[in-house]
Amino acid sequence: DYISAIPEESDMYVNNTATIKLKVPAGDEFNGSVLLKNLYLSCDPYMRGVKHSDTGTTAQDRIVFFAPDSPIVGYGVSKVVDSRHPELKAGDLVWGITKWEQYSLITNTQSFFKINHTDVPLSYYTGLLGMPGMTAYAGFYQVCNPKKGEYVYVSSAFGAVGQIVGQLAKLMGCYVVGSAGSKEKVDILKNKFGFDEAFNYKEEVDLNAALKRYFPQGIDIYFENVGGKMLDAVLLNMRLHGRIAVCGMISQYNYEKHEGVTNLMHLIYKRIRMEGFSVNDFYHLYPNFLDVMLPFIREAKIAYVEDITQGLENGPAALVRLFSGRNAGKAVVAVAHH
Ligand code: NDP
Fold this sequence. Notes:
The chain is α/β, with parallel strands linked by helices. It has two domains: 3-128 and 305-334, Medium-chain alcohol dehydrogenases, catalytic domain (Quinone Oxidoreductase, Chain A, domain 1); 131-280, Rossmann fold (3-Layer(aba) Sandwich). Helix content is 22%, strand content 24%. The chain has eight helices and 15 strands. It is elongated. The structure holds NADPH dihydro-nicotinamide-adenine-dinucleotide phosphate (NDP).
């Protein structure tokens, strides 16, 4: 209750008897800690996978996003309010793994990047210039091994990752087709993001036939965001020596038992390389990524669509919307002004 009484810009903690400046507590255990004011929180499909976190292979894969009686954990953009970290000071802007609350005390700052470029909207660091952007960049350039002129298919193409992958592929000179779940999304894929073609997968009774229509000569690269029946249909349409970058399988996240994929023999018939990847293994490339992306943004070579929900209290509903496609673009929750 008292948090809501804080004047917007003050970073003060007010209760009935006192106004206290928000500070990192004293004590050796808080050396290196920062106190953050959260500005934007990111809604990401992987947060749904918490029930499988015990299968994670790296420390970052094993983060628990939903723990009883604790705030949700997730990526966000924040302002440093107080710092006992040698490289961060009050007023700095950062992005990394924070919590779904107004102010967060962060004792492990390992996931955080300092934001040095503020001529772009800060919310971009939850998407285009943050984790989903890095996912698109690493997945496309490092995993897909793309070449000019190749035939590229992106599923969930209007999403945070998909819209960037499609545009990177266009910038490389590929032929790019995307699928998404509504006519409005399909129109934007073609008219704003410059995809060569796009289709509404929900209107296709036969996904194999739809892919044959858009790729009569077959698919060289499939950027997989969806899994299940879509993957099965894609396998039938891959070209010799095709590559499938397995980024995500959102159609399966709400199922206890995943849908069977029956066409895996096509991996052999077509000598396809199918490779799963995690963005967590590529953050060392973040400076290279910024060198590529910032000029693309400043020169308007990349377009970007966000779906911003106002207010922390509306965050959980925004997160749930991802799983029925009711987000249109990168889903972000705006918590405060900086
Ligand atoms: P999006 O912004 O694309 O949001 C999710 C979208 O998925 C929805 O808008 C919806 O779009 C689509 N969707 C939801 N349910 C289904 C379904 N049953 N079948 C088909 N499509 C569905 O999310 P992101 O771009 O952030 O993430 C895309 C994928 O990338 C996810 O699978 C995610 O888990 C993965 N990912 C993987 C990472 C990695 O390191 N490997 C890192 C980040 C993300 P529509 O209207 O088109 O149905």
